[in-house]
Design goal:
This protein has 311 residues and is of the alpha/beta class. It has 14 helices and 6 strands. Pfam families: HET.
Amino acid sequence: MPSLDAPSAAKFDITQIIRNVVFETLKATPPRLLHTFTGILCNRDAQVSHFMGSQQCNQLLSSCATCDADQRMELIHTEVSRYFRFVMLSHHWGEGEPLLRNIEGRPIYNMPSKGGLRKLQAFCTIALGWDYLWAWSDTCCIDKDSSAELQEAIGSMFAWYRRSALTIVYLADVPATSSFESSEWFRRGWTLQELLAPRCVLFYTQTWLLYKNLTSSNHKTEVVVLEELERATGIESRFLTNFSPSMDDARSRLQWASSRRTTRPEDIAYSLFGIFNLHLPVLYGESAENTLGRLLAEIISQSGDISILDW
């Protein structure tokens, strides 16, 4: 076979390096993401293909040709990370939420705009408007028929929200001019970690308007929002803006969850795994008492704090 000339060989090497960095970057992101421009749900292979065929990748290849090795790797990591920034949705489930099987292989923008699908379409449109190409919703981005995938998602959920470039909180029961303190969102189990984990959050009201018309890029930097969050959750603002998952002050962390509820009883414990940085088996079908028992036993084992039994 004829040998590749030097420029072609060099370009092939750089392309392979870029591809390797893409795969490594995606290991820390959800395995399925919605492409906000097309509205199509993409697995990791599809995400890689999107990048390798993109204008950003072509520009990266051109830039790499004039860099030394160290600069090249820094540039590749920077551009790949920027391309795969993603937005997470936090919301209270309603009627007609689209599941994986409902949207797989179909652009969501071409589907009837009603119920949960209308919410998903609006979420992706908002994310695209903020210049993010990738978005995630717990309704349709997890294969809930796969116990292994469900276990991975529950174990990784806190990390995904923490890693997100932005988390959009949709408050379906809050009119544009109202306070959000009475929203059902504050009484759900899973939304506790969805509030604490992200560094950047934007609250949207019923009609997809920014809460209180606050146009900053992060509502966690708004004093008026933090004061309302403290009143609605009983959580000090220092935890709201700079939360670390750990066993520290375990009793308080359990108390934050004490007034919240979940559709499935077991989830009240599962939704706390990320807050304590615990990794325990997910066993749907066991009683809520057993699930909480396992959680409390692990917290006591690691922290030695028996006061949590009075949470």
